[in-house]
Amino acid sequence: MRHLIPLGDPVTNENDKQQQLDRYRVEQGDRLTTDQGVRVEDTDNSLAVGDRGPTLLEDFHFREKVMRFDHERIPERVVHARGSGAYGFFQVHESLEEYTCADFLTDPSLRTPVFVRFSTVAGSRGSADTVRDVRGFATKFYTREGNYDLVGNNIPVFFIQDAVKFPDFVHAVKPEPHNEIPQAQSAHDTFWDFVQLQPETMHMVMWLMSDRALPRSFRMMQGFGVHTFRFVNAEGRGTFVKFHWKPVLGTHSLVWDEVLRIQGNDPDFNRRDLWEAIERGDHPEYELGVQLVPESEEHSFDFDLLDPTKIIPEEDVPVRPIGRLTLDRNPDNFFAETEQIAFCTGNVVPGIDFTNDPLLQGRNFSYLDTQLLRLGGPNFMQIPINRPVAPVHNDQRDGFHQDAIHQSRTSYTKNSISEGCPMSGVLSGRMEGVFRHYTERVEGEKIRRRSPSFEDHYSQAALFWNSMSDWEKRHITEAFLFELGHVERRYIKENVVGHLAHVDGDLAAEVARGLGLPEPQAVRTDHGKASPALSQANAPRESIATRKIAILVADDTDADQVAAVRRELQARGAVCETLASHEGTVGPLDVDRRLGAAASVLYDAVLLAAGDELTGDGHAVHFVREAFKHGKAIGALGAGRALLEAAALPDRQGVVGPDDEGFTQRFADAVAVHRHYDREVAGFSA
Ligand code: HDE
């Protein structure tokens, strides 16, 4: 394959972006100066008249310092305001040239640098991470042919079918306008009012009420491009494509009660988890998969491929793994990198194109438009994090914050003065590497009307429900009860239940009962179909890599035994922390955290190695009972038997005792299961 751009190192370019950023990175100097580089005498006292006199306007250092402070804030994103980002690289497994000419998808030796930003949607920048919400999964690929942005979510469908409704939808889910309550929650009247009036939301609402909306970690959630996009190969042939990110660590969720408690214990739970994993060298990895549909099969589904409220079940079109994303570097500065990164769905490279999905078409306007205000003008792509590694040459000029000093005497095309440069492909006659929009025949009347092929709002909501395990169905039902329980208007609840009756009669009846509403008539035409790939219960749960295990120790702990088990767990990739009633050491063991300053919700499993000293400690007993309530693996070692007994747990699913043979293996197996959900049936409450 030929490239217009000189490529340098032919094997890898994963460092290209970092080398570019190095030019902008600034070290902390040792002398304080003004923005003009003038050394500052004293920054603790402003210039004033005498000891007790007024401050002088002439104090340029004071004015500059306060002026800069006054203007530190930029508007937060109108949605996805709270996010966390990381650098990494993407490498395709084998050439996809049969389907796309995108350089980064055809050269397996290439490591394309990326920046990924994960986010919640509804909350403000300072809101808690663990809320019931969709998560953004936006990836900027700095390819040799320009930036490609895959701006996805962790749920494969969306609430609405047409972008023109996005402002209404967002206004409905955001805090209510009169009192700005509630923060980062969908459990309020305006959101459910929108839902009851817009049945196209039903499929997405089912996902939102499921545990998918409570990811354990950004490292353990899927990502989806949502829309059907188009691959285009060198011959100009198009293939429909849906993008999937699958985390190598598996897809895991928190439980609802845990979510609520983490909000107080560590509002930065997901952000911290991502940061710490990368600092530790546990680099998050995701497989990129594609579902490919030949154009000839566009109309062979019982839904419209252009409808973003629909998935293509994996059983019908398998997800083909095509490459791997690895995140291996934290940003140096949150504002400069994570806050200023600007994703635009319109950023595509040759070989990847749009379809006529009306949601996608609208997004292509919105993302570019939103950055103008957020980042202060049309040159936002010159901010270091947004710069492509591919060279940029054009006649676009001036505007706020123009950073480049264009030396050319011309800024128009065609020109003769600069020998016609820079020249488009057509003008130069060199078409290699140009972006060519896919040639598609379109005709029709100019109308404002939803396509009849977008009309079915319930079949895939039912497909999702049918595919759930018992515990997943239980969680979805409870989520509806919680959310609608926070709605004041009875008719809104009734109408939502009315929609649920189209999805599943039992679900609708149970929600109605819980809310004290009349049971609706079941109206679903039961298609009886399920897609096992949709259930988290079917995801592999074998590894304990990066699971956080709390080890409770005291003076009666057998330190050698604990050290040996800890070593084995760490060898399997677990992250262990030792907790005791005080910081410092317990015998030869280093204490990582004081038990009183920790909470079970911050861990995936608990290993009890302390006995009598903690049996009378209410916090320690609560710690164990709460971990049990949230379905976590519990192991008791040596003296830990006494603490286990003190906790008086009602059953032993996922509980491994000191006398159990092959303790470490059994405990690791119990941790790998992630959550022992069947405990919930016993109705245990801590
Ligand atoms: Fe977005 N969305 N969105 N969205 N979206 C934004 O762009 C918008 C939609 C998504 O980490 C905004 O830079 C419209 C679907 C992510 O910086 C804004 C519509 C999907 C992010 C915007 C949608 C997404 C955004 C706000 C309906 C999944 C965060 C700030 C047509 C496929 C990106 C910004 C980041 C952010 C508009 C629907 C994902 C206002 C109009 C569907 C991950 O432009």
CATH topology (fold) name of the largest domain: Catalase HpII,  Chain A, domain 1
* Helicity level: 25-40%
Distance N terminus to C terminus? 63 Å
* Total of domains: 3
The biggest sheet, with number of strands, parallel, antiparallel or mixed sense and barrel status, is: 10 strands, antiparallel
CATH class of the largest domain reads Mainly Beta
Query: Can you count the helices?
Result: 19
Q: Quickly give the structural class.
A: alpha/beta
What would you give as the CATH superfamily of the largest domain?
Catalase core domain
Strand content: 15-25%
Small molecules (ligands, ions, cofactors) in the structure: CIS-heme D hydroxychlorin gamma-spirolactone 17R, 18S
Give the rounded overall mean pLDDT.
95
Number of strands: 18
Shape: globular
Q: Whole-number radius of gyration? A: 28 Å
Q: Briefly, what is this?
A:
With 686 residues, the chain is α/β, with parallel strands linked by helices. 27% of the residues lie in helices and 15% in strands. The strands form three sheets. Strands 1, 2, 3, 4, 5, 6, 7, 8, 9 and 10 form a ten-stranded antiparallel beta sheet that branches. Strands 15-12-11-16-17-18 form a six-stranded parallel beta sheet, with helices on both faces. Strands 13-14 form a two-stranded antiparallel sheet.
